[in-house]
Amino acid sequence: MAGELDGMKVAVLATDGVEQIELDRPWQALEEAGAEPELVSLESGSITAYDHIDKADTKKVDALVSTADPDVYAALVLPGGVINGDFVRADADAVAFVTSFFDAGKPVAAICHAPWVLIEAGVVKGRRMTSWPSLQTDLRNAGADWVDEEVVVDGNLTTSRKPDDLDAFTAAIVEQFARGEEDVAVGDDDEG
To answer: For each of the chain's 192 residues, which pLDDT tens digit applies?
Structure first.
């Protein structure tokens, strides 16, 4: 994987309650492939990651979502965590930030509870995707074709279910991000 993403700036959007392993493992895979991940969050300072329902490490925030310029990032990663997914989807700036990646046809990856944010952004209709199983009804109601697979790539969107899928997820995002913007979004042709 070394060098596939040399110099690529990748936004990793997360806040308090992010599932630590779903933040750390993709971050590590991106760095090993030569990318430069940046933690974009709802507030400046640091966030507290979680190991399921227990507090884990704190992570330094690199950029504030309300002022971050999506144009400087080539791709976006949305780690999971119940608290994280709920807080991020409730933040209008975060939803607009996510939407801008889809509008630009840039690659996006989401795992576990992160697809809640994609529902809020209105970008799942007509997409084949996966998530933490408890989100399947939400995704289907939003028009997605939910499947129970460890990793699903649909156009510029890569999704996975849970921490056990991280090996497949990280390999898929490095491959997908290396292709960059050459893939066009498939699925929903509507605005937003």
So the answer is: 567 899 999 999 999 999 999 999 999 999 999 999 999 999 999 999 999 889 999 999 999 999 999 999 999 999 999 999 999 999 999 999 999 999 999 999 999 999 999 999 999 999 999 999 999 999 999 999 999 999 999 999 999 999 999 999 999 999 999 987 444 333 433 433
Neighbours of 72 (CB within 10 A): 10
| Cβ count within 10 A of residue 54 | 7
Using DSSP's 3-state secondary structure scheme, residue 100 falls into helix
Residue 38, beta-bridge partner list:
11
Dihedral sign of CA atoms 30, 35, 36, 40 in order: negative
CA-based end-to-end distance of the chain: 33
52 is catalytic: no
CA separation for the pair 63, 44 (Å, rounded): 7
Which candidate in 25, 89, 106, 113 is catalytic? 113
Contact 173, 155 (CB under 8 A): no
Threshold 0.70, pTM exceeds: yes
Cα distances from 145 to residues 98, 125, 136, 137, 188, in angstroms, run 20, 8, 9, 10, 12
Q: Tokens in use for 41?
A: 């969050």
How many whole angstroms separate alpha carbon 79 and alpha carbon 97? Answer: 15
